[in-house]
Structures are given as C-alpha cells and as structure tokens.
Amino acid sequence: xxxxxxxxxxxxxxxxxxxxxxxxxxxxxxxxxFDLVVPCVKNPPGAVDFFTDVANxxxxxxxxxxxxxxxxxxxxxxxxxxxxxxxxxxxxxxKLLHEHPECxxxxxxxxxxxxxxxxxxxxxxxELYKSLAHNYRPAGLHLDYIRTSGRCGCDFCKxxxxxxxxxxxxxxxxxxxxEQWTQWRAGRITDCVRRVHELTQxxxxxxxxxxxxxxxxxxxxxxxxxxxxxxxxxxxFLFPMTYTQSLRVATMRTVAHLAQVAGKVPVWEGLCKxxxxxxxxxxxxxxxxxxAVLEKGAQGVMIFSYSSLEPADFExxxxxxxx
Length: 323
What we know:
The chain is α/β, with parallel strands linked by helices. Helices cover 42% and strands 14% of the residues.
C-alpha cells in the first residue's frame, strides 16, 4: 500500500502521563508509523491545558508543560503536532463567559456554548490560537467544534437577523428566511476559519479541521460548510468524523467526502476505535476500515482516540503501515 497519512486524536493531554511516560508513548506512536498527534488542549469546560494569559489555565495542568514536551519530543521523532481546541463550547472554566456573560449562546438542550457568531467570541478564539502558535510553535493548529451547535437565539443573533427583516423566533424551516439565516450562520463560521488560516499562513504552519461526516446537512444543522473551506483553500487538511462500526458506512462516506472535496485538500478519514459507548472495533475491524477507506482514495486516516488504543491495535496498525 502506498504511503498514507496516519494520525491520532487525544481528548486529554493527560493521556500521555508523566514526562517519562510521554516520551515512551511518543516513541510507540512513531515506531507504529504515526505522522500526526492532535491533542485537545481546550475541552468544553473552557479552561486550557497550556500556558497563556488569554484563557484560564486548567489548575491541574502541571508545571513541566506537557504540551511543549509533546511538541518537542514528537518533532524529534519526525511527527507533527496540531493542538486541538473544542472551539466554541465554554463552561465553568471559561474566562470568556465569566467576563462576558452576554456572549453565551442560547441553544435549547445543548451543553454551554459561546455564541459562535459574535465578534467578541471570534476575537477570543483568534487570540487564544495566536497565543498558542507564538509561544509553542507547533507544526499546525487544529479546529474542532468549529460550528454553531444549532440555531442560537442570543440577543446578537436576533439583532443581526432583525436588521435583515427576519424574526428568528417566528421563522419556519424550509422558508427563504430560514435559508437566509442558515447562510448567515455558515458565513460567520467560515469567517472564523479564514481568520485562523491567515494566522497559520503568517506563522508558516498548517491548519487542519475535524468536520461532520454528513455533508451538506451540517450546513443547516451546524453552520459548517467545510466544502467551501476546501474550495477556498482555507484549510490544509480535512478530517471527516466518520465514526462507525460499519465497514460499508465508512467506505461510502469516504467516497462521498472525496467527491465533495474534489482533490482540493487532502482528506484523512476519521475512524473510531470506540464507535459508541457500547461498541468498539476490534483491531482487525479497525484495520479493515483503514484499508477500505484508503483503497477508495483517502489520503490518510485519523483515529479517535489515543486513550482507546491497546497493544493489539498498535500491532495491527503497524503491520498495515509496514505492508
């Protein structure tokens, strides 16, 4: 099999353990053939796992700075690191919402989010990414939760739509007003992606994004038009989150994603070791999915997540890589 990109998401930098354990685990990843590690350094509560003045630093983040050690150690092993933010969720640890409660999104039935469309929120996101890029010099940045999480009814969104003659509390699905609201929300998310991409270009680093696998439905549901990002070249990699235990579903979603992107940016298909709370892929099933999506033309594979990988998974993945 031709050379393909191979990466892994980690939902918590604590997954890598102590400094000595981190170095051993990076070695294991490199020896298996991984190219990219994507650690989450801003989880939904809002505090961050790196040193910065922009956000609240997680009080449990150790003094020895695991993110910096991860970036340096991975680089020594020939691997890249793209630190990952859950971009717009903001909870109890959020400095943004503590100082600016008006920036809270009003979306029924969701975890606490900042309104992705508000300029103050996008400024905060940009400054936080800029702080990380300047101070840590990673190979790239990674976007996740880069979406609206639904239709926000905050005062800002109401006012913006009111200026366009639309009452968002009365608008019906499937109407021209609803479509205008959808396109405005998607445009605000795309504006945020463009701005972070300008930052990564200026820093000479890459920008990757985890995106919903169900395109174009995610434009309406999430304001996430990732095909437009590919068409504009505002991301360097797309990682569709094709989390399924079904080989056929993984295969057919890959076919769709490649057709939608049409070669404009590399697509690394996102596969999940743990497909749900109650089902997980065996090493053989995971590798079978990997082989299938690569045979369909995906340029790489991302695996979610590091903490779910076991010795048998590393062995099976390593055999596929070496074969």
